[in-house]
Design goal:
five-stranded mixed sheet; mainly beta; 18 strands; five-stranded antiparallel sheet; 2 helices; Immunoglobulin-like
Amino acid sequence: MGLRNLFRLLTIGAVIGVAGCGGGGGGGTTTPPVTQTVSLVASKTVALNVPTNDSISLIATVSPVVADGTTVTFLVSSGTATVTPLSATTVGSTATAVVTSATAGSVTVTASTGHGTGSATMKFIPQPASADVFIALDSAITKLDSLNLKFVNDQGATYTSAAKLNQLLADSGSLLTAGPGVSDPANTITIGVASAGGFTTVANTPIIQLTYSITSGIPGFRVGSVVSASTFPSVPLTLSTSNFIVTVIYRDSGGNPL
């Protein structure tokens, strides 16, 4: 074979090879699956199961932001309850629903877009007769020697007593409570803690227990304001209401937790 014919064959082979490589792209591209996050938030965590007109509102927020009219489905995934509606459309990337139950117990509701899910757990209970309220700090504080709080309860609850717990109980300091001051609302008490040498708190461990009687509804409880705080020896300490963790145990007329 002459050099001219050999060169011609090599050139043709190169063209075919390039064309063959280019043809492999004809299969198209694969669209990645859509991934969404659904955050489901309940308006409260506890509601009455009787009467059934007590309800818990749910807000499902979808991200990334979706177009108005995107469907969100709601499902009671555990427990006994009714969620209305079962399907809602988004406005501003959020959709809402309402949960009711005539049955006492824990309920979990799931919200889904088909590309993401979120859930929230709540509890339905009968009318409580009393509540034990526990107050803790969210972090350890060394030698806390004074604390003055305004504590607030919702309508339907009446303050009855207070007790020291854990580190405050082990300390020789005092716990004092007083009814509403002249300028305080009727549902507010003042809590005072004093310690000669200071005591060290443990994060999320209650140091104060308050007891309330309840006549109606499921009242909430919260630290209304922090008047003052200090560490030994009387060094001012800055605390806000967000530094306190309030936990509530509702009880029936026999003292049993609900």
